[in-house]
Write a structure and sequence with these properties.
- This protein is α+β, with helices and mostly antiparallel strands and 380 residues long.
- The strands form three sheets. It has a four-stranded mixed sheet with strand order 1-4-5-8.
- The protein contains eleven helices and ten strands.
- 52% of the residues lie in helices and 15% in strands.
- The structure holds flavin-adenine dinucleotide (FAD).
- The site of flavin-adenine dinucleotide has 22 residues, from strand 1, strand 3 and helix 11.
Length: 380
Amino acid sequence: MGVDRLLRDEDGVALLELTREIATQELAPRAAEAEEQARFPAEAYQLLGRSGLMGLPFAEAYGGGEQPYETYLQVVEEIATAWPSVGVGLSVHTLTVSVLAQHGTAEQRDTWLPRMVGGEWLGAYCLSEPQAGSDVSGIATKAVKDGEEYVVHGVKQWISNGSCADYYILFARTGEDPKRGLSTFLVPDGTDGMTFGAPERKMGLHSDVTTPVLFEGARIPASQRLGQEGDGMKVALSALDGGRLGIAAVATGIGQAALDHAVAYAAERRQFGRPIGDFQGLQFLLADMAAEVERARATYLYAARLKDAGRPFSRQASIAKLTATDAAMRVTTDAVQVLGGNGYTQDYPVERLFRDAKVTQIFEGTNQIQRMVIGRSLFS
Ligand SMILES: Cc1cc2nc3c(=O)[nH]c(=O)nc-3n(C[C@H](O)[C@H](O)[C@H](O)COP(=O)(O)OP(=O)(O)OC[C@H]3O[C@@H](n4cnc5c(N)ncnc54)[C@H](O)[C@@H]3O)c2cc1C
């Protein structure tokens, strides 16, 4: 059946139909096993690439779909409903492409964008470090200019798609100033001096393989610097506004999946001679879950419409990320409750969704940081 969506145009309707077909037939049936084995879903990204879904918000001139963000995000939501890790991977990929699309020179865009937008190349975003999480001004990875190259030393931590991506968007220090001393680089996989640590052993989202990325004297041509020297902080933060909307869409998809499972279970499971969904006490729980999911969707769509209209949307992106990810945590927790003992087992998908939901409150800016962004914007 699926979510009843108001889409902008016929293109949007067709894209969502295609996405739903791929999500239900190709992704959902593979999710549980792959997550259990922590298997990276390379074939899922290849399929999305062949289907034109890896470059939706980017220009047709580069092979993209030239779709409004509003449509792209609903595609992310549908994919995350079927398999949250793949939704996260698609969102992170889009984040990396947006850096090149916004800050690359015409030559850099012509050289790199078609492979990224067409889904041939998958991206990773290397911002965080062991000592620099919420506070990225603490980044210590250094890129030192040597002729027409930069020589990079340092450690990036928590990198989604780490060791599986085809290119890495790297933020490294080219100057001492904590905020104006960062620069951005494109580092293709296979670059000498770039290696990967072992995947993190995480609570959930196991197929979103997350590794440290280590730089030991990697030489990066100056032609692969994106934007001006010193612009890295600006580049990172502006890309994250769009990225946070991707995470809000993922969280909404996780919440929707948990709600769907809970409603289906409540219609079937009988106690006291009736389906448990007949009891008002449980119906109110399900009603609150439905309200949470729809509120989450409404907040990310509003922010996306502002972005599509070229209006500022930074505060609304933080509100959407905060609202949708807190909703995902509450809705998945309540879905476990609706399923009773079964909800607490790995035989039903809600415990996996519950574990997957948690990290959405942490990455791309914790929800404390979102509140800081929102709070500051009220006084600026
Ligand atoms: C599965 C996963 C995937 C990730 N993928 C990526 C990726 O692809 N690329 C990437 O660059 N990073 C990635 N990250 C890193 C992620 O963005 C960071 O974990 C996150 O920004 C928080 O940083 P931290 O873990 O160092 O926590 P810390 O910054 O140490 O925060 C710890 C706690 O302190 C709170 N806190 C910190 N500062 C403040 C403050 N000023 N006011 C109030 N509270 C505060 C935080 O909200 C949090 O609750 C990923 C993380 C995970 C877990």
